[in-house]
Each structure stands twice: as C-alpha cells, then as structure tokens.
Amino acid sequence: MCSFVNFNINGSHYKLPVIYGTFYEKAINISKLRESTGLITFDPGLKNTGITKSSISFIDGEKGELLYRGYPIEQIINQCSFIETSYLILNGELPNTAQLKSFSEKVKKFSFIHHKDINKILDNIPVFYHPMGILSSLTYILDAFMNSIQEEDLYLHLLAKLPILAALTYRKRMGLPPVCADPYLDYTSNLLKMFFSVPNKSYEPNPIISDTLNKILILHADHEQNCSTTTVRLLGSVHVGLFSSISAGMSALWGKLHGGANQAVIEMLEDILKSGGNIKKWIEKAKNKKDPFRLMGFGHRIYKNFDPRAKIAKKVAENVIQKLGISDPILKLAKNVEKKALQDSYFLEKKLYPNIDFYSGIIYQAIGIPKDMFTVMFALGRLPGWMAHWKEMKLNKEPIGRPRQVYTGYKKRNIK
Ligand code: CMC
Fold first, then answer.
1. Cβ–Cβ < 8 Å for 302, 401
2. Which end of the chain is more exposed for a tag (fewer CB within 10 A), N or C?
3. What atom in ligand 1 is closest to the CA of residue 355?
4. Taking a C-beta distance cutoff of 8 angstroms, is the pair 321, 82 a contact?
C-alpha cells in the first residue's frame, strides 16, 4: 500500500500522504497542499471530498451495502429495537441487558418538556406552517432550557424530547390537546400514543404498527456524510450547541432532494394515478433534460446499485399493508414504476435505483402519518446518527469547517 502520492507541478516535485479506511478507501490528505504548492482542490458538491474520519456507519455504494458500527442493516432490522440501535450508534457497541435498561429508563425519565412555555410558542405559529419548520424551530428553542445539563445526558434528553415535539406539532394541527409520555410503553408505542391518542378514550398501541415504526426508524438511523449530517457536524465545529445543530440538520433534511423526497414521492405517485396511470409518460418526463422533473425516490449520490434500505422498506411496506388489510393502489403503482424504470436504459446506465424514500411514504401512510409529517418521521429516525456525528466531531477535536472557493468576481476597484 502506498503511503504517499508523488506529483510534479512545473518541474517541482511534491508528495502528499495517503490515508486508508477500514475497507481500504484511499484518500489523499491535501490539508497542506496550498501551503506547499499554492493550489487548492475544486470539488463542487463535495462529490469526491472526505471531510472527516468516521467510525459510525459505512456504505459500499457499488455493492449496495450499509453497516451501522460494522453490523449489516439487514441484521439490525431483524434483531434490534430502535432504542438499541440508537445506543449502538451513539456508543459504538450494542448494549448488554443492564446497559439497555439504564439507557431506556433514562430516556423515559427525560420524556417531558416545559409544556407551558413550549405551548405558548406553538400557539403563535400558524397552524398551516409545514411541520418540518415547526419541529426545527421548537428544537432550536428547546436549547434555551438545556444549558445546565451534562453532555452525556443531553443526547438522551433529545432522544426523549424530539418525539414529544413531533407529537405536539401533529396534535396542534389536528386540534388535539397535548398528551404526556407513557413510561409503561416502549419507545415506538409511546410515540404512537403521543401522536394518536384522543381524549376520553384509552389507547392501545397496535403491535404491528409499533414494529413497523421501529423498523422504519432503524432504516433511517445513520447514513454517513449526507447533507443534513454534514450540516450538524459543521455547526458543531464552530461550537453551536447540540439542539441548535440538530435543528439546522432538520432544515437541511427538509430539502426535496434529501429527506423531503418521501413526501414528494407520494405526491408524484398520486399525480401519476390522478392523471391516468401512464407510467411511461412520467418516465419520459424524468428523462427529458428540458423538464426539471425527476423521478422522486430514485437515484443516490453514493449508491450505484440497490439502496439496501429501499429493499427492506419495500418488504416492510408489503408486510404492513397485508397485515393491516389495507388496499393501497399506491403500493402497486410504486412497484410498477420501479419495474418500468429499471427496464429503461436511462436509469440503468446512470445507475438510478429506488432509494429509501421511494417506499417509506407508503409505510407512513399505512400507519396513519399524514404526508407533510413524513420528513418529521425521517428526522426522528436520523436523530441518533446526527447526535453520534456531533459527538464524534467533538471527540476528534475537529477544526472548524470552513471550505475555500475560487473567486471569479471583480478585481479590486474604486467607487467613482
Ligand atoms: N430522475 C431522473 N434523472 C435523474 C434522477 C432522477 N431521480 N436522479 C439523477 N438523475 C440524473 C441527473 O439528471 C444526471 O443526469 P446527467 O448526467 O445526464 O446530467 C445524473 O442522473 C446524475 O445526477 P446528479 O444529480 O448529478 O446526481 P447526484 O448524486 O448529485 O444526486 C440525488 C443524487 C439523490 C440528488 C438525485 O438522484 C435526485 O435528485 N433524486 C431524486 C430525489 C430523491 O429521491 N432524493 C432522495 C435521496 S435518498 C434519501 C436521502 O438520503 O436523503
């Protein structure tokens, strides 16, 4: 294995160190490049730039594999709960029985918020405002109540409190009064109760729905250096607090090309149905370079093969729809869109496969989550990943994230 790359510029010889990852991903360390050569690198969209060394998750985009702390997603989904996965992602190892008990109990203990103050704020946000904007704002504001908390507890407070904020956002929209967390329920059953219970009626969480929610949250738990995670790391690097950094991550996630795609996929599938179900016409539209339309839920920056999360999400969607006895024309349509797209040379040549967002909205709809809350559910799932990256960035003592640019504006000039 070479440990340096050698190169010449205008007759001068230079060498730069090469660093290796666990799976022999090679990276040229260019941190001293400008100092020695006067050059910077140019990489719009950071397509080919490693911004950190990380040990949280790993994607093999060519093989279509995803590991959380070394464990394949296919094993985690069948053997772990979301709360165990959160522990794994935050701490690096799966918890033993005692560790899991203490972790879960602390999350339950911290499952409260300053309802009076938060409700006053919520009452002043227009009810029609998008839930992602509300959740991000409330998370940011909650920072103000967290200043005396020890860092290790801060992660558990956020894991406990984000579902409460999400549920409040939903209930405000539905005109329902807030409900407190139920300490006798597991994480996902409690989340469902905080969303869906209604006054004067006892709430029994449906185990099929709880299990489905568990799975979809796990599928989202981490995904290395995506846009929202990088946002969280960048904010943390300039010493922005955890809650505010996560709030910024949520704003990044909201984008339609990132986590906002789950809502956009269902809206697109509904449009296809409404317009007569002519899939070929929509595929042609997505291929037309003069048309800004893209087939939502297709393509990924890293996966150039099946997104393993999409494969699992498809099975989870089929399973929950069948077990709940729902008749959903959207699932059938989605499968047909996938089939037709994957027979088309445009999608094959560009290696555009369904991503996690292609089937996740169908799952959310089946368990009663409204369309504009889909990305909120993505945020609840991604939370352990965001927090682990914020924590890792601090432990690594990473420098502030501050890229360079190639300036193309005016030369220095004077005001006449
Ligand atoms: N439909 C049609 N064409 C596409 C699509 C699509 N969904 N995705 C990429 N392409 C084309 C694109 O037009 C470009 O073509 P050309 O080379 O001829 O200019 C080529 O494929 C490469 O696309 P890109 O935009 O350079 O690739 P990227 O890696 O920068 O973008 C992406 C990745 C996910 C933003 C993109 O595939 C996309 O816009 N997909 C639809 C939105 C979506 O589903 N987003 C969810 C991503 S997964 C969840 C998450 O982690 O956030």
1. no
2. C
3. 48
4. no
Close Cβ partners of 146 (under 8 Å, ≥ 6 residues apart): 154, 157, 241, 242, 243
pLDDT in tens, 117-139: 888 999 999 988 999 999 999 99
Cα(27) to centroid(ligand 1), Å: 25
Residues with active-site annotation: 300, 357
Q: What number is the average pLDDT over the span 168-185?
A: 94
Burial of 329 by CB count in 10 Å (0-12 exposed, 13-18 middle, 19+ buried)? exposed
Asked if 50 and 18 count as a contact pair (C-beta separation under 8 A), the reply is no
Using the predicted structure, report yes or no on whether residue 102 has a pLDDT greater than 80. yes
- Res 87 pLDDT > 90: yes
> 300 C-alpha vs ligand 1 centroid, how far in Å?
6
Identify the residue whose C-alpha is closest to ligand 1 atom 52. 258
CA-based angle 396:400:401, to the nearest 5?
A: 105
